[in-house]
Amino acid sequence: MKKIHLTLILAVAFLCTGKIAVAQATSNSVAPQAVKSSALTPEERDKATFEKHTRPVLAALKLDDAAKAAKVHDIMVAQFAAWKTWHDTNDTRIKELWNKFNKARSALNETNADAALAQIDAVYATFKPQHDAFIARLGTVLTPAQIETVEDALTIKKVEITYHAYGEIFHGLTDEQNAFILKELKAAREEAIDAGSMPEKSAFFKKYKIQIEAYLTAQGYDVKQSYKDFVAKQKADMAKEAADEGDAKPADSKQK
To answer: Could you read off the pLDDT of 197-256 as tens digits, one per residue?
Structure first.
């Protein structure tokens, strides 16, 4: 890994769009089931959770073939069940390793950060056969593009949102540079669909953002300055919008 860059500013910049925050709030919503959950058995609660997480995937696919939709439904529910079993066993260790990774990055200790990532990869390698089987089963029903739709639904479209954000932050990106960024983000998505929570999905994207930032630095971009310029522009735009709204209010009141 090249020199580690802090990406907190990038995360804040992305949130300025509001898209990730809204999508995450929607995907994590459990209010409709809150009243009934206390009366369910653990198995029934798990099944209700699997169904809840399957619905956005089917909605994103917009399949007009009921038989295909039923097959995808069953594949998703089975995957969520396998996913829960695996995470129940491994999440304590995974959380410990992500904490090590974050501490190493904060200390700019890339050796320890790389070591933590290697250990995280080793843990997730034990889930790889299930991951591959899941993708293969989807492939018997869906096209490659539709499988990407499933992966986007499972990661609240982080590839699309992050890719466009890079285009806004780093001006003049070439086709080759854009292709590299997109390839890295799709690799992040491939790993993130196995993650146990939305923060961990974001952590997998952070892992690949570090590589993207190192690449852009090697391509001649001042990454930190680009972030600063983007955040400053966002603040200036927000201040101007607030000022414009303030100027409009007296005029509106006079018209009334």
So the answer is: 999 999 999 999 999 999 999 999 999 999 999 999 999 989 888 887 777 666 555 554
